[in-house]
Amino acid sequence: METVRLARQGEIAIATIDNPPVNALGQALRADLARVLSEASTDPAVTAIVIAAAGKAFIAGADISEFGKPPLAPLLPDVLDAIEGSEKPVVAAIQGVALGGGLEVALACHARVAAASAMLGLPEIKLGLIPGAGGTQRLPRLIGAAKAFPMMLSGEPVSAGKALELGLVDEVAGGDVVAAAVTLAQALVAKGAPEPARERDDRLTAKDREAFEVLAAEASLKSGDMPNAMALIEAVRAAFTLSFAEGLAAERALFTALLADPRSKALRYVFFAEREIARVPGIDSAVKPREIARAAVIGAGTMGGGIAMCFANAGIAVTLIEQEQAQIDNGMNRVAAIYEMSVTRGSLTPAKRDERVALITPAVGLGAAAEADIVIEAAFEEMGVKQQIFGALDAIVKPGAILASNTSYLDVPTIAAATTRPQDVLGMHFFSPANVMKLLEIVRPAGVADDAVVTAMALGRRLGKVPVVVGNGFGFVGNRMLEARTRATERLLVAGALPHEVDAALTGFGFKMGPCAMADLAGNDIGWRSRKARGKTAAVADAICEAGWFGQKTGRGYFLYPDGARTGQRDPEVEALIARVSQEKGVTRRSFTADEILSRLLDPMVNEGARILEEGIAARPGDIDVIWLNGYNWPAWRGGPMHWADTIGLGVIVARLEAQAAETGDTALEPAPLLRRLAAEGKGFADLKARPV
Ligand code: T1G
Question: Which parts of the sequence belong to the 3-hydroxyacyl-CoA dehydrogenase C-terminal domain (predicted)?
């Protein structure tokens, strides 16, 4: 199928790109575009060319799925050279998004018209790359480096209005963007041969250079582990120090090197993994979601209030229900305080705050849920309480309403069994704080209707969440793997590591926070209560809780938090306590390197992930990675635990787990059969096919 249609409007040729879903610049589109441009350029009846597009995007950029494969002609820079080198003016008619290579196509044109709703950006930095088809050389020549560099460094798109202000587009069309582009093209014809961006060195003044270097110095301080920020600085600097041709060559060399960088490979993997989750194996993509016009949330505690805010923030009316007036008053006060904090910070206007609060109706008694299309239970994490609530709701809510539990690890089929409508009951596990955290685990128990699952997925997206369908099982996916890491932390502390060493190994890997600091933030008593409920122990963690050191809320936990400090300090008393526990267990403490700590923390997580895949609790390894990226701050440029394991090599992971199992006698550390099989076959998790959960 042709991806570019050529039409004529008088002497103006109109090349319309049509390569669904987003006009990505794959090889076929590049070839068609080059062919059509050549035809129009050599047609004596044509005096100018407009490049337009069909669908929701002008062009969404290069085809990311082609990266890492042998490049196929024509390469994008060559197509852009043909556009810019045309003797006939070429005008871009931009509707939807012009991103990455898409904006670079527009930059190679001699003029640009944008629809009022268009968005334009160079997001390559978010993929661990830099613009690789002239963006770092043309954009500074068009709008100045001091404006171009921040746009490329943030990767954030700008509106058509902002683009006009920057000088990135020549016109914002009030009506039909193609018609406006044709008119502009005709005007350019009258003016004579067009001036390509490459000739506009006049924008690269000494003052512009000075302003750019200040921004570059700031960026290099914050670039951390990301080599592409440094490459971007080098590429934009080349616009000042090299000729246009040499600058393009320098940019291409930097871009090509980044393509091979593991951090960029991880970010490109994440890009597709976060889109793959929408495909739920075993559910036909034709299944439609049920209508959700009104919601109800049971429980106005931290989680329930946060979930109600998610609905209000998405413009969906929600009834927040408690058992008693005092409880619902407390809940509403907590919600009001959170919104007030956003207003104080300037991230929410008072009008928006009032609009959202008005969408939350406080109520007492489950009867208030009668008209809801979905009810999300966020009550006390105790099975009896949940069964009682679901049994009561079953008799109250209308047929077809969905009943969801926000349980973080309880058995969803047991909750569903308390109702006469198991086909409408599933888990929607939000992460705290619910109004902030992106991750939403949708627990699909056997017997739930497909359209109920599809409804929960669609609702999750409406709430701005990253919804991942998981199977029913203790801790589902995220918390189950977190528990593996928590057990590993306990083992390391007893064996000789100290809290600050364990945390430093993970923050050095790229996490924002280590396991000890995270426990102190969440409250050590939460894990303590859960262990006691399940008859489990953890000597160090239990001893810290028995001392009443619950973390930040008590001023000390694994670390000290003097005067309400948010960053912990080493606590000699905790370190003495840990040493005592080792002694009581007859363990001779030893030191661990950061690498040893890292593998002892992460390998067991990967092992648990392998078991989760074997048991069909996750559909694909990428889903597990998306969960850890969006629920637990796994660094995106590391790709997620399963992608990371593939980069290490599963054979290495298996050997390390076997050694740990032998050293500790902990059979849970024995490699999972799936892990062993993939390693033996020289494969990775990426070789697995998706399977229903
Ligand atoms: N390449 C390949 N596939 C892409 C794609 C791309 N650039 N963009 C989107 N898709 C697929 C996506 O995987 C999904 O597929 C479908 O399109 C709909 O996407 C040389 C080097 C454009 C704002 O980073 O930001 O150009 O799952 O679900 O929510 O210097 O897609 O349906 O099979 O996201 O409406 C730079 C990436 C590339 C933009 C639309 N460009 N895309 O959002 O739909 S590098 C980007 C987006 C580059 C040059 C450099 C968004 C969107 P499927 P979607 P959406």
Answer: 475-560, 597-683
Distance of alpha carbon 86 from alpha carbon 110, whole angstroms? 9
> Is the model's pLDDT at 541 over the cut of 80?
yes
Pair 201, 137: CB distance under 8 Å: no
Residue 364's domain spans which residues? 294-476
Burial 456-468 (b: 16+ CB within 10 A, else e): bbbbbebbebbbb
**What is the pTM (predicted TM-score) of this model?**
0.95
How far apart (Å, rounded) are the C-alpha atoms in residues 150 and 219? 9
DSSP type of residue 559:
S
Task: Select from 538, 564, 590 the last residue of a domain.
Answer: 590
Q: Give domain status of residue 688, yes or no.
A: no
Write the CB contacts of 373 (distance below 8 Å, at least 6 apart in sequence): 290, 291, 292, 293, 294, 295, 400, 401, 402
> Nearest C-alpha to atom 22 of ligand 1 is from which residue?
60
Beta strands 425-430 and 402-405 are parallel
How high is the pLDDT of residue 227?
Answer: 81
Q: What is the DSSP letter of 432?
A: S
**Total domains in the fold of the chain:** 3
Q: Are 257 and 263 in contact (CB under 8 A)?
A: no
| Beta carbon of 121 within 6 Å of any ligand 1 atom | no
Look up residue 38 and give its amino acid. S
Interval 166-190 mean pLDDT: 96
Asked if 169 and 37 sit in the same domain, the reply is: yes
Let me know whether 319 and 440 are in one domain.
yes
Whether residue 117 is found in the same domain as residue 235: yes
Strand, coil or helix: 364: strand
Question: CATH number for the domain including 563?
Answer: 1.10.1040.50
Which CATH number fits the domain that encloses residue 78? Answer: 3.90.226.10
Domain membership flag for residue 219: yes
Catalytic residue numbers, as ranges: 104, 124
Which ligand 1 atom is the nearest neighbour of the CA of 56? 35
371-391 pLDDT per residue, tens = 999 999 999 989 999 999 999
Question: 218 with 307, same domain?
Answer: no
Residue 295, CA distances (Å) to 289, 376, 405, 654 in order: 15, 8, 13, 47
User: Do residues 570 and 577 touch, judged by C-beta distance below 8 A?
Assistant: no
Distance CA 33, CA 51 (A): 9
ipTM for the predicted complex = 0.98
Ligand 1: nearest atom to the Cα of 130: 30
129 lines ligand 1 (CB under 6 A): yes
